[in-house]
Amino acid sequence: MTLRSDQHSVIRLGIVLLGLAALAGLFELFARQAPYTPLELGMLPGPIQQLRDAALVHALVALLAGLSLPAAWPTVAPLRFVRVLVLGHGLLFAALGYAAVTGRMAVQIWDPRPLAVVLTALRIVGHLTVVGAYFVWARRLWVARGA
Fold first, then answer.
1. What letters, b where the CB count within 10 A reaches 16 and e where it falls short, cover 118-142?
2. Total domains, the chain
3. What does the pLDDT look like over 55-71, one tens digit per residue?
4. Residue 110 pLDDT > 90, yes or no?
5. By C-alpha distance, which of 96, 18, 23 is closest to 64?
6. Could you read off the pLDDT of 116-141 as tens digits, one per residue?
7. Could you tell me the residue range of the domain that residue 133 belongs to?
8. Those residues with Cβ within 8 angstroms of residue 10's Cβ, 6 or more apart along the chain or in another chain
9. Considering only CA atoms, which of 59, 55, 53, 56 is closest in space to residue 11?
10. Where do runs of H (alpha helix) occur along the chain?
């Protein structure tokens, strides 16, 4: 099966997110070790698990979207769609990655630490960007099926 350039970009995004999920899973394994053992990282495993779960789910959706792009756009998907999808994932996983490393969940809407609120805002903007891009993809699939 020959893939188009837009499919390559979205499938590459999915593969990168699968790698991130694997790396976060390994990171989580060491964060969950018993305290004071040589392999223990001394970090909260919750934010790392959150990163792993989100990366795995988004990777699977990106792979599905990449394979079904020809059904949504018969010629080629707009470059703007691919860029927004990649930018949204980059923003989302930068926020989740920083939250995992610093031990934060990135869900605090009101917090005395100013960085926690910014981290939550970046996460929300990343989620909204990704959901918006996938909504455009799903709408195109829906219209293509009805036509």
1. ebbebbbebbebbeebbebbeebbe
2. 1
3. 999 999 999 999 999 99
4. no
5. 18
6. 889 999 999 999 999 999 999 999 99
7. 5-146
8. 62, 65, 66, 69, 77, 82, 85
9. 59
10. 5-31, 45-67, 69-72, 79-102, 114-146
